[in-house]
Amino acid sequence: MTVTQPKSPTATTAAAPSGGDRLSRLRGSVQQLLAAASLVVILIFFSFASENFFTANNLISILTAATVTGVLALGTTFVIITGGIDLSIGTGMILCGVMAGVFITFWGWPVWLGVAATIAFGALIGFVNGVNISILGIPPFIATLGMMLIAAGLSLVISGTKPIYFTDTPEFGDIMNLSIIPGIRFPIGVSVFIVVIVVATLLLSKTIVGRYAFAIGSNESATALSGVNVRRWKITIYAMAGLFVGLAGVLSASRLSSAQPTGGMGLELEAIAAVVIGGTSLQGGKGSIVGTVIGALIMAVLTNGLRITSVPQEWQSVAVGIVILVAVYIDILRRRRT
User: How many distinct structural domains can be found in the chain?
Assistant: First the structure.
């Protein structure tokens, strides 16, 4: 008698894509093309609006600004693909920057060790979020909202409400600001961003982390029934996203050569908007790193363009808020068509 062996989750994942999968990928590609076209239109508009916009120095400034938001958005992409959300990435980044100041300035650790510890601290924040969501069963919105407030408060407590300056370790500022090409302003931080994009792309498309992130976001119950430890992988994905938060904290503090204990709130919305603009669904199961990068560039170009055309700060906030609402509404329309 012939016995048919059940397919493993890996075998199922590796099967040939169905017509529905191909259609979903086509829609994702169209979304990315629309986002890229929007980026080009915004670039052209601000180029005509200000003669100072399309210059080498300003374009580098845009890439530098996109680096921090982009790194946050890359980690958030994995979380949103699982159907989750992380509202703590902004204040978590600030707390990581403060911890970098503690490690390097207060405790006198070498810069490389302080940077590694800061990134690990970011992973710890993500791990706690993952445990609260997966083990304790707290909804992601509430769990990360609580962590957002905790991180904001700890930043003020640990720093004594005062900035921490890296005056004795100027090499820490070089992480973000030093140019890697003599005579040409191309900061190391932008190069780090490019490397992180490549790493995130490989993680999402070539590793089991990416496959399970998509599986959990598409159908968490079915994924669990197929033998996948959904709780463990959710914790892993949130902790991995925390690594990106820790790195963003390092880059942000390095850019200013100081750890600023205030701020951070609002960055999570920009990062989430970048992810959604790039085609990642807030319902989970769909997303790409390329789309997220395009979304991060759109947010950076918009902010820079409004600033360079002397639009008041309050109207800049209005514009960013409108972009976020439009991005979410487009995601809703996309889900309805699907």
Answer: 1
